[in-house]
UniProtKB/TrEMBL annotation:
Species whose genome carries this gene: Sterrhoptilus dennistouni
Entry protein name: DI3L2 exonuclease
Keywords: Cytoplasm, Exonuclease, Hydrolase, Magnesium, Metal-binding, Nuclease, RNA-binding
An example molecular function term from Gene Ontology annotations: metal ion binding
Localisation per UniProt entry: Cytoplasm
Length: 216
């Protein structure tokens, strides 16, 4: 199995350049010999050194290697809980390849949050004049929700939910943030409003003010 040599270098090593560092790594690799009789120890600042033992058997089974020589890997096999709302705020634009079949069916959604992948959205979800006047929507914020992401595709698939308004304005930006984080900002129900004082105008009594902290 391949062995990964991790090199650490300080300012003095940096002055000698990358070629000097690669030479040191090459020397370390030549000195490296893995055997079952001894656990390797990291020494020096240029890599991992092992004492060469010509008479000892070399390790062909990675399960017998010391932990410092192993690069732990894993594979995602199942998603237990989807923490993200799958909704994102961003902009829509036409695909670059105008001759492709996908250009006739989809547009590209680019999220503002770069942690969210770019998304193919159907042209049917876009404004009717988007194809003829895409520049008119270059600064228009949209909400898109990811619905699928195939293993063989570089981009996810989604649906445009609504148009928020011009980028940079407070209300569209705020609504986009609340939607991304799954915050319910709809109007309160009548049952909730009934909990508020009904005899208006309502004021806080002097007794309550005396024992409250005024944050107005």
């Amino acid at each position: 199995p391949d062995v990964i040599i991790e090199a650490q270098f300080d300012d003095n090593d940096a002055e000698h350049g990358q070629d000097h560092l690669q030479d040191m790594l090459t020397d370390d690799i030549k000195k490296l010999s893995l055997d079952t009789g001894e656990k390797g120890k990291a020494a020096g600042v240029t890599g991992v050194h092992r004492t060469k033992q010509d008479d000892g058997p070399k390790v062909n089974d990675p399960r017998l290697l010391p932990d410092e020589f192993l690069q732990r890997t894993a594979k995602v096999v199942y998603i237990l809980e989807k923490k993200h709302s799958r909704a994102a705020t961003g902009f829509i634009k036409l695909l670059a390849d105008r001759n492709s079949e996908l250009f006739k069916r989809c547009a590209m959604f680019s999220p503002v949050d770069h942690r969210v992948p770019r998304v193919y959205v159907p042209l049917a979800d876009c404004p009717p004049d988007f194809v003829t006047k895409p520049e008119a929507y270059s600064q228009m914020l949209f909400i898109c929700r990811i619905v699928d992401w195939k293993e063989d595709s570089n981009f996810a698939s989604g649906q445009l939910c609504k148009s928020l308004g011009q980028a940079g304005e407070i209300e569209p930006e705020s609504e986009g943030i609340l939607t991304e984080y799954g915050v319910d900002f709809s109007d309160f129900s009548p049952e909730v409003l009934e909990c508020l004082p009904q005899n208006l105008p309502w004021v806080i009594s002097p007794g309550e003010l005396a024992k409250r902290r005024d944050l107005r």
